[in-house]
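Let us begin with a simple case.
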Amino acid sequence: MKLYDYWRSSAAYRTRIALNLKGVSYDLWEVHLIKGGGAQKTADYRAKNPQGLVPALELDNGVVLSQSLAIIEYLEETFPTPPLLPADAVGRAQVRAMAAHVACDIHPLNNLRVMNYLKGPLGHDQAAVDAWYRHWIAEGFSALETQAKSYGGSFLYGEEPTLADICLAPQMFNARRFNCDLTPYPTLVEIDGRCQRIDAFSRAHPDRQPGATA
């Protein structure tokens, strides 16, 4: 398999964690989102992923999958061990909801395209952009902290990492990048720390990727 990846992309980070947890081998193909105006905009990459986003996962048969949550669900169905979703329907719904909370409600408001649009066409300075970022982290993490206390054990839901934790870890990395105050979210901080002690998570960390820069 080929993973079209950018080292600091949250969505790509999620996918790397899932591939590592499943023990699936893959080759990394860098799609640099900044250098040279952005490799994601090239015709060659758009032919593989018309959205021009990362990640994309090219299977051995040449089929290309896009959208990190869809890719992870594919991995869950194709490589069921270890499971990333609970065995019961209610548990699966709760985990999917927390994953969507991060991947659909927090992350899209703060991704590179949005930040560039705020600074470019809308003319906001960096201080305003940072305030925007921190506002949506606080909005999302406040609710997620409550959910984690309600459903959690060692992880966001139960005693093993799930899809929800796969989504949490990259968002915690980004929150720290933007100097967000994490003291109101001790449960999330504790869970993220536990995740980072798992090899599949630590190997997926942006700082350990071939394209990482200071």
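The second case is a distinct protein. As before, the sequence precedes its structure tokens.
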Amino acid sequence: MKRNLLALAVGVAFVLPLAAQAAPTVYGRLNLSVDYMDMDTNVAGVDGKVWELNSNASRVGIKGNEKLTDELTAVYKAEWEVQGDMAGGKDLDARERYIGLKHYQWGTVRLGYIDSPLKNAEDSVDVFNDSTRLDMSSFVTGQTRLKNSINYVSPKFLDVFGANITLQPGEKAANVNEDHIADGISAAFSYEDDSLYLSFAMDKEITTSLPSQVTTFIGPASQDRDAMRLNARYKMNELTLSAMFQQSEMTTAPVGTKLDEQAVVVSASYDMDKLTFRGEVGMNNFDAGTGFEVDTTLIGLGIDYNLTQSTKAYMNLVSRKDEPSTATGFKDVDTMYLGFGMETRF
């Protein structure tokens, strides 16, 4: 009997240290769709109609935490985008990954490759989020994931107020003056209760990709920009209404040049049993000065059929119009998108 008790005590002594660190969570999402796109090419003999199978930011990841003391917890996450259709044979692109410390009273500090606070502030306004062709990043700037992130996320003050702040060292990547701890700054401040969400977010000297209407008609693929974003969401039972207003500009514009952005996005969703109806209108203007500008309007509808809490089938129908000024030498481009897909989360 004493031998059995001794063996049990030794076993418990080995198991208890292992139990202190919770097992990591493996999770993921597969979202594949069959999409039809009909785009004006404005080129004689060139057909802009195409069928595509898109992977829509499918992903897999691992995350977890380890309690260090009664007040401190270590947190970590590593996530990859996966190509469900293996388009081009490329797989495992980097998404968020970080390690950090969470204090129960003072908030969380994380280091790594993290979505910018301005990007996170969008909340639920983009009802086509993650869609390869329709995600808000296809016509609005600021949807950026930041390398070299030193990020702080506050706890909820008074259960409703929050802050999300990232400092980004430049590491002399662009020029010799980028050698400070905060060469780029992104921050968001929010209020959220059971029905209302409000946020103000800003970027300062953040390198962001420019959407297709800019790269096609006006300018570069990316640049350092300053931005301001206001978001609101109001939920009334099964109906959710969201809106976003954004302004952005080049951080340092050469004399006589600019590339100013003004964007508005409004959306709504309505849950009815297993169905979710979605709608979105987005408008954006990029003005490069001296008559060079482009307007983009996106109007879309979608419907989800929720098979379970984790799996849904869906359809999207979207019209987009890009209108460059005559000074650019380009004609208007009208595009229609129709897609059918399925998503499962695990």
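The first helix runs from residue 2 to 19. Residues 1-19 have pLDDT under 50 and may be disordered.
Keep these points in mind for the review questions at the end of the chapter.
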